[in-house]
What we know:
- The chain is α/β, with parallel strands linked by helices.
- Helix 4 packs across helix 14 (709-731) and helix 8 (290-343) packs across helix 11 (514-541).
- Helices cover 72% and strands 11% of the residues.
- The strands form three sheets. A six-stranded antiparallel sheet has the order 2-1-4-5-6-7.
Amino acid sequence: MILTKLKLENFKKYSSLEISFDLGLIGIIGKNGSGKSTIFEAILFALYGELKNKGDKEVVRNANASEKDVVSVELDFELDNSEYKIIREFRGKTLSANAKLYKNTELITSGAKEVTTSIVNLTKMSKDAFMHTLFASQKELTSLSNSKPEDRKKMIRKLLGLEKIDFVEKELIEKSRELKREIDAFKEVLLSNEDVSIKKENIKEQSTQKELIQKDIEKRTLVLEELKLQELAIKQDLEIYTKTKEQKQNLKARCELLQNTILSHQTNQDKLIKELDTLNTRQEELKGLQSIKQEYISLHDKLKEQEKLKEYSLKKDGLLLEQKELREQYTKAKDSIKVLEFETKEHNELIQKEKELDKNIESYKQLLLQKELEEKRVIQEIAGEEKLIADIKKKIENITTLGKESNCPTCTRPLLDEYDSVIFSLEQIVTKTQNTKIDTANEKLLIIKEEKENLENIQKTQVKEHFEISKTINLIENKKRDLEALTEHFEKVTQKGVKNKVELAKLEIYTYDYNLHESLLSKQKELKTKYEYILSLETMLKRVDSIKEELQTSIANQDKYNLELLQKDLEYKAINYDEVKHQEKIKQFDEVQKEKDSLITVINELKVKIATITGQIKTIEESLKNNEIQLSKVQTKKDDLMDYEKIKINLAEFKTKLNSKVAPRISDIASSMYAQITKGKYQHIEVSNDFDFFIYDEGKRYPIERFSGGEIDLANLVLRIAISKTLSELSGASSIEFLAFDEVFGSQDESRRMEILEAFHTIKEQYRQIFLISHEMEIKEMFERVVEL
């Protein structure tokens, strides 16, 4: 397949575009975002009706196109000496798809799916195979050698389509294992014929036993009902006995509680009377200590006054010390401010001078740029004339070698008699060009260089002066900042001194006597113990009224409890209760209840037996039914397992044959190309069955990582091309004669780019078209043909 022309209407970023493709090494060049990759998306869409990513249908239409505008892609290509044209369109709001396929201008297929089927039959490749075979990116190339072995193996097997076989094989193995486990599990639960017969006989026996037990339960239930009636009558008698007993016990407990409470009140009254006597004695003692309390309180007030005076004295001493330090700071700051004001007075003058130098330096910079442009123009002029002289000299040399029978280099007619005059004319042109144009240009170039050197010297002098002034300005600005900070500090010191002076004037009226303060403290210490004792007495005497009140309350409560005790004792003696008859009735009730519970237990046990038998019968019946269902399932699974095993054996044989061909074929193709590209330096690239890469150097095998970056890049390139060829051979698509590489130059330097391009030139005999996509505009001169976007 050779691509010849592509036409786009309202496709993605292109409103309208038409490109013709030639043979050879073709560069698709354009800046990032110019739509280079879109060209090959359109080719893929034309062939298979899908974009690279299936879910991108809604972004196919150009942003500036309306819903009425048709999205159209036309692709012309040659295949097996026939010309084909594909037209695919999207129409309307829902982007309804349509397609047509022409062969030698004759319509052979229409319809989106039908055209795609025809293309797959023509190319013998699906969309994924087409992409993996003919398209490669820089990321894909570097991944060949940079990836981990397992990742690289997965990537290459994916390119070759082998992962689909692995997936199917894995699914088959898992399905087979699952079926075997299920069949083995069924064997554990399936019943033998003997087991089935035994279970059916067991059902009959269990049913007979169930009927006999049911009749026994009915007899025992009648006896149980009689016992329940007898139990109810006894229970009613017991409730009367119990209530009478509880009433007599409650009265007895209340009488005992009242007796204890009365005794407790009497004890408490004795304690309270004793405590009142003690407090009356303390009252007399307190009266004699009142003078000491007044003396201590007066002394405490005097000490508070002395503490305040002490605080004022300490504050006054601190302010005097601070005033001394402030006076020193004031004098020092004042002197420093005068010095800094003198050192910064030239600041504005130096700023103005710096601005003037900036203007001068910029003007000389512009003059130098002009001189450099003049110098380049003269050098280019000299180079052009020298090239002309070299070409004429080569013509003279060719004519001299060929002789008089040679053709004129201008009109292509034989020279003959004009031979000498032509040579002379050409030599005159060389001499004239050398003497007039080149010599004049060299003189002009010398003058320009001298002027340029003078300008550079002046500029250097001014730059040096500008540097010194800038340094001085920076120093002055630092001092100005110091001056501002020092001035602010000077103001704060002045304000603080004035404030302290006012505070000292206020404190002059206070006088503190240290000896008086100490004597008052000593006297307070002597009286403190007596004062604290007086306070404890006052606290103790506060309880007198509460104790008297508590004593009166206790006497009143004692009288009330004595009256209640007399009443409760009379009620207790009036109650008639017979403990012997009560115990006999309890015994009778226990015997009836025991007999009833025993009978209920027997009946429940019989019911459990019936339930057990019913469950056993149901279990056996379900077991027999389930056995029939499982026998049917087992046979189905055995049939499935046999089919899976047959498919697995055939697939393993196919995979073995395919693996034995793929790696050696990739190795052969890559080795041949690499030897050609490296001009025989490296003869062989080996690809292992695990898709590890090795390069042979002087007969020894080395991992690809051992070699230089450029050698690895070239090896990646030939390996990718070898994989593409192998894919083509496997799919039977040998008529595909183009390759496309997207941004394979990456961030390579110029020498690497040249190596890669040289490699492509080396292999172009094997492919009639090689497309290289790149955003590097400066490499477009390296291609035979360029499509610039």
